[in-house]
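Workshop exercise sheet. Pairs work together: one partner reads the sequence aloud, the other fills in the structure field after running the prediction. Swap roles for the next sheet.
Pair: D.N. / O.F.
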Amino acid sequence: MLRRAKAYEATGVDALFFTGIKSRAELEAIASATRLPIVLGGAPDEFNALDYLASRRVRIALQGHAPIAAATQAVYETQRALREGTAPKSLKGLASPELMARVMRESEARVRSADVLGLNK
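Structure field:
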């Protein structure tokens, strides 16, 4: 792995992506052998210390699909509540109108829609 990392670095790549790193010792070896930023595609729990990762030039550490799993659970619970007769306004855990406007980029969408429809002329 170290020989390959050094070879990639020699070609001029911008960063190195690793999966399957199991220990700090492996990460230390990679960080010592190269000078490039490191991207980790999944890592053990002991790698949750952001200061430690930064000190080893880890710039991105993928954390799995927890946000997708949480969203799936929320959609499931919402659909179940609706199917069981809960009124939409009585649902729990809904995003505020302000958050929805921000994540949906409402103001930008309004401008783009007006441009497409020719309303800004």
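Discussion prompt: The longest helix spans residues 66-83. What would you look at next?
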